[in-house]
Amino acid sequence: MVDFEPTEEQKLMIETIHDFASSEIRENMREYEKEEDLDDEIRKKFAELGLHLLEFPSEVGGQNLSFLDRVLLSEELAWGDPGVARALMNLLPAAYFIQYFATAEQAKNILPSLSISEKGGIATALYEELSHADPLQFKTRAKKSGKKFIISGKKVLVDFANNSKYVLIGAMEEGSSGWEGLRFFLVENDERVKKVSKTDKLGLRATPTYTVEFENLEVEEDSLLRGAEDLKKTYNLAISKWNLLLASLSVGASRAAFEYSAKYSKERNAFGQPISQFQAISFMVADMATLIDSSRLLLWKAAREIDKGNADSIDVPLALLQTMEAGFLATSSSVQILGGHGYIQDHPVEKWMRDVRTISNYIGQPFTFINSAGEEIIKSGGQK
Amino acid sequence: MIDFELSDAQKNVLALLRWFAKEKLRPLSLEYDKHGPIPPDAPIFKEVKAMGLGMRGGVGGERRKGEEPEVGEEKDKRGTSQLARIAILGAEEMAYGDAGIMISFPGPGLADPPVRRMATEEQKEMFYSSFQKEEPAWGAFALTEPGAGSDVAGISSTAVKDGDYYIINGTKVFITNGARAEWVVWFATVDKKLGREGHRAFLIRKGTEGFKVGKIEKKMGLRASETAELVCDDCRVHVSQLLGGENYYKQKEGFKGAMGTFDMTRPMVGAMALGIARAAYEKAVEFTKEAYETKRPLNEYQSIMERLVTIRRKIDAARLLAWRAAWMIDLGKPNSKEASMAKAYCAQVALEACNTCVEIMGSKGIERDHLVEKWFRDIKVFDIFEGTGQIQRLVISRRIYEYI
Fold first, then answer.
1. In chain A, which residue's Cα lies nearest the Cα of B275?
2. What average pLDDT does the segment A238-242 reach?
């Protein structure tokens, strides 16, 4: 049944998160950005809400809620601030890969033991330069050696590498080719995981990010997550969830920027009246709001497909592309509406524009999603 | 609960409508584009009537006693109407077939929403009985004037009380089905100084003395549709045909009556735009598969693919805005902002889509037989009628500023 109303439970959750975002996030977001990290206080308060593994099964410490619930939560958290939102969710994306690539036993042993306090998170070593999140192009290799694996390679955009307990590493096994060779390892984050350099990012600066290198890193056999059967499908499910989550952060930030700049335009006077009276401004407000809403709805649709077990749905790449367009338009227009004031750090809009651009780069280059959507379009002959 | 799945009944209705659009309407497209407007006695109208299409020109409001249920009408589990959500599917499918023919379907048409919303019981009886006959009949909505389009408050057509009659003078333009309409809802002012408060709506019957049809327009597109100029030259209309009666206007409802109907029609018009866009998109996909997938260099194919993906995601996103606005109608929620968002974005996206599809198809793109150039000509007006995209943005921003 076509319906656009969140359930009462969802509304309550959104309200709770909104309050948290208003009181804990907005006030301190610039501080966290400057420190390039969160503090224990906000992590503790977020942990108390009990929502950090909300869509995971209860066997692994979750609440058995839906991925759509995660999307709703993330948008509201990011409405507070996308950088803080991402930093609070420091078990992701690793937890998705663990849930789907590990055996039930492994998942049960690992996930519940993780808290979201500073030292409890998981760094995800997934992305590589240029090939980004395409496993078929991973240069990071794992070589079987007796009862161990030897991992070598370089990963970029590794969030939380400096202070997480574990590192999740995506690699290709030597001697295998194609999807059959995809391997995920969960290893202790010690000095053998070389933090080559800290990444001085455009946005999402409340999350510390590193380039990381493995030089013949020896890991135990049982650090391999060996629960997945169809590796391609499994990977697609995990990465799609992560990308859609990033997209929902973008929607939240876009909405925050839109509301902030629309409000500003009512208060700012020029040529004898509030600038909201000028169509150049009000039309920008209208276009922002429309594009944000359109991307949110497509995102919800993609999340519903995920929950229905269709991670291969064309809705996933389409929603990501739509959100990326909306994110840029909304945040850029918001800075524009504030004029010179939008450009300085006294206001949050320049930050949100940087954050949203950064989020889009984590999601990846459009050609990835254009390729997968394009394949589906040609296959299905264009019918809705 | 947030969901986007159609019920089985709705899927069946959708399949039926799509079949009708593709098998019955589309084959007539070229003919009536070349030799339009489609005549009132066109055989297709019998089939349209048999399908139960066109009898409700808008949505919202109770089904009247004796009216057949709309195709696929049902209530959902909570007993909420699904009418608007079904109508929005129908709007997209019929336009996918042929938008010009669709808006020519016999029935109350654009006169339906104001009559449903404003008319007295007697007036409804008088009006709707005309559409219960065997021969097709049309309704029309006459608001726009040569000097007043977006500025609805600025209409000049006058209505002067004279005993039991109003004498109406004025000219209306761009009236869909204006020449063939049995009934025209005509907006005039009793006092221009009052602005909107002076507006009155009248039910004028075809053949009334002083009521004339002017020119039939030659248009860029939607050529199957009859677009007429209408003139009132000392046209005498009985007070019983003042829509809603004198009391209605004592509550200063005149202007709001016209405007309120837009919240219902705008999402439908948006969905129609998407139907046209989807038709063009489908043709372009077919063409790309045929001409590019294996026969042209990979980089050309990929460049085209990128554009097709962009069109597809915008159509899909726009559709959800239209569905949302329709859902709000079903739930009785005020939806001005959402209706205008849907209309503005759908029209914009559809124009972009048709433009890109003409481009993709190269020499075939500008050739009449392939229909894509027709859809390019058809789609442009969708950002203009039922409120220009600029007016939609005014509505959207005003609503936003109310709560921000």
1. A384
2. 98
Which are the contacts of B262, defined by CB distance < 8 A and separation ≥ 6?
Answer: B339, B386, B387
Contacts of B181 by beta carbon, 8 Å cutoff, 6+ apart: B109, B111, B138, B139, B140, B175, B206
The per-residue pLDDT for range B285-332, each reduced to its tens digit, is 999 999 888 888 888 899 999 999 999 999 999 999 999 999 999 999
∠ at Cα B110 (B4, B260), nearest 5°? Answer: 70
Angle at which helices B336-360 and B298-330 cross, to 10°: 160
Say if residue B66's pLDDT is above 60: no
Cα distances (angstroms) measured from residue A154 to each of A90, A161, A213, A372: 21, 13, 4, 26
What value does the mean pLDDT of chain A take? Answer: 95
| pLDDT bracket for residue B96 (50, 70, 90) | very high
Yes or no, beta carbons of B3 and A2 under 8 Å apart = yes
Q: Which of B311, B273, B381, B321 is nearest to B4 (CA)?
A: B321
pLDDT band for position B258 (cuts 50, 70, 90): low
Does the beta carbon of A2 lie under 8 angstroms from any beta carbon of chain B?
Answer: yes
- Provide the pairing of β-strand B138-142 with A209-220: unpaired
CB contact under 8 A, B393 and A282: yes
Contact B397 A377 (CB under 8 A): no
Name the residues of B annotated as catalytic.
386
